[in-house]
Known about the structure:
Elements: H1 6-11, H2 16-24, E1 75-76, H3 80-88, E2 93-97, E3 101-103, E4 115-117, E5 122-130, E6 138-139, H4 154-165, H5 184-189, H6 206-212, H7 224-235, E7 251-255, E8 278-280, E9 284-289, H8 295-302, E10 337-338, E11 371-376, E12 383-389, E13 395-400, H9 409-413, E14 420-426, E15 431-440, E16 443-449, E17 452-457, E18 460-465, E19 471-475, E20 487-493, E21 496-501, H10 518-525, E22 534-539, H11 540-546, E23 552-556, E24 561-567, E25 573-578, E26 592-596, E27 629-630, E28 637-643, E29 646-651, E30 657-663, E31 669-675, E32 680-685, E33 691-695, E34 700-705
Antiparallel strand pairs: 1-9, 2-5, 2-9, 3-4, 5-6, 5-7, 7-8, 10-31, 11-34, 12-13, 13-14, 14-15, 16-17, 17-18, 18-19, 20-21, 21-22, 22-23, 24-25, 25-26, 26-27, 28-29, 29-30, 30-31, 32-33, 33-34
Amino acid sequence: xxxxxxxLKIWFRPDAxxxxxxxxxxxxxxxxxxxxxxxxVTAGCxxxxxxxxxxxxxxxFTDPNIxxxxxxxxxxxxxxxxxxxxxxxxxxxxxxxxxxxxxxPQTETGSCRVGRVPQGTVVRIDSIYAxxxxxxxxxxxxxxxxxxxxxxxxxxxIQPIFQGACNSCHSGLIKTMGLQTxxxxxxxxxxxxxxxxxxGDPENSLLWQMIESERMPMVGELSAxxxxxxxxxxxxxxxxxxxxxxxPNELWVHIAPEEVEEVTNACSADEVESPSTYVNASLTLPIxxxxxxxxxxxxxxVATFSPTIVGGGGxxxxxxxxxxxxxxxxxxxxxxxxxxxNAAAAGIRASAxxxxxxxxxxGWMQMKGGFCIEQRLPGFDRSITAITFAPDGxxxxxxxxxxxxxxxPLVLYDxxxxxxSIAVYDYINDSGPNEIFGESPRITxxxxxxxxxxxxxxxxxxxxxxxxxxxxxxxxxxxxxQLFHANNGIVVSNGWVYISAGGIRDGYSDGPITGMGPVxxxxxxAGGNPYAAxxxxxxxxxxxxxxxxxxxxxxxxxxxxxxxxxxxxxxRIWFTDNGAxxxxxxxxxxxxxxxxxxxxxxGDDATSPYYGFPLALTExxxxxxxxxxxxxxxxxxxxxxxxxxxxxxxxxxxxxxLYRLGRGANGQVVAERILLTWPLLSVATAPDGAxxxxxxxxxxxxxxxxCGG
Length: 709
């Protein structure tokens, strides 16, 4: 059941004017290709703030800020093979010495020594040699490098780039123009128009032409290093894997002479005609390609060494561990996304199901984990962007144009295009749906409370009293239609109306936000709007009386584009947040599931709970809360609901489908995919306890436990 994005059918036309528009958006490219790819951020509190940790995780890299400074061209490394690929891409390698090391004038163990390098020293590597050889295997200036040796491979070097930058449009599920870039064989097979890679000939490869001209990727941008890596890979024949290298102890690296300490028993003048500085590769740990790593990353790595640094390296104070952000399970079987440090306090008692990690080979619309699925409204051709229920069982649906097939592009791009509607559906008697409110801007949140349907739609919040008409309650929320960011989900809980309000900046394609406090960072993402890039809330009575956005106050900061929001039986608020795009895989982009305890809300920006948006800050924040579950970058979580004693949420981007939180044998909270579907936009729980989901074009489904598998 293949689905193609209609947006890309438009954008892929060779229209010169359209290309100019796309190129003009280089610094501010679309954050999410599609409506409703949204997000989740971290939180949770019970008692005396058990989720509070004192600061966000340290960054494993350095990058400029969001205010226009050019981004540093850099990539993380972990092996000597990675280092060879980096040098082949004409970039220097930066490594940490894992032990006190002698420096030799030749690439041989038995040669005399010209100096030493202490453990923990960061060294710059400009070439790599085989034992006893004078010509390098790879060099930063290309001298001696032999690309026929395939230092760059698709699996090791190209696939991670494409999974991060091209997954939204060219994955195994979403093959725009018939092209999949996230696996080797489909990429080499090409698109509907034929091959896109001509091995050995990048200039005549459509893939390289689109990348070089910056027409692709549509979301975010590739760094100069990533571009050069792709070009060199094609030039080398587009191999699937790197060629095998000798073992690290059979390789030598050339380091900068200024990094070498003098020794008293150095080589004599007659032993070395032209001294050079080589270190055995087994004594180095490559960590960065293109630019030096930040000191906190080095400190975190050095803190893992044993014994500790001696002889000139200096002590390591306040060493911080390197933090990852992918969140995925490395095992072929087992949970996919693991919980944050404070997930133990989330109150999730449901056991993990032990499901395999999600793959494109999963059965489409086939439940896993012992759940049953029942389709309603078969053949329904409208997107269902929000769902809620009245106590008597009436179901309310927010409807939009489908994001698949032929659709009006103005509807998809323009949050204010008046073609949305709300319908009521009697699912018990299977009658309807019947529209009760039409010609509306985009609607992404519905909730029923005290005899009225509360509505969150682009830039405003309103309600429809039972039997009455629509009433505006507050307007003035920020909207960025091209990014599909606006006020999104809505939930009424214990006399308060909560809104998940999106920001207007991507937060990374312009560079991360550094050198400022949480409030200043959030205001950049929010474009200065005090009701954006936040969870906000208003006292229901006050909102009904004032009917003005000033009734809202900040409930939580540090989110980029929160989408789904719900309340659990204890009155705690759960929400999803969509993080930044084009973020290095070893760094969390902020795609998360978060928990907010109303008792921690102060209403003041300076003291409000702060939920990560990990790229926003480097200094500690006393109000920072870690995620309940950290998702893979570009996961783009959507709707969320409490059902069957735990949290269920949808995912729109990477590994799309319906997920359920459960606690593993080790006590850690994990998210497991129980259903593959796309695009899943809305998740809600009926009065009888059953879970319902709404998709982009396949209608409506009721999910209950009790089936096998």
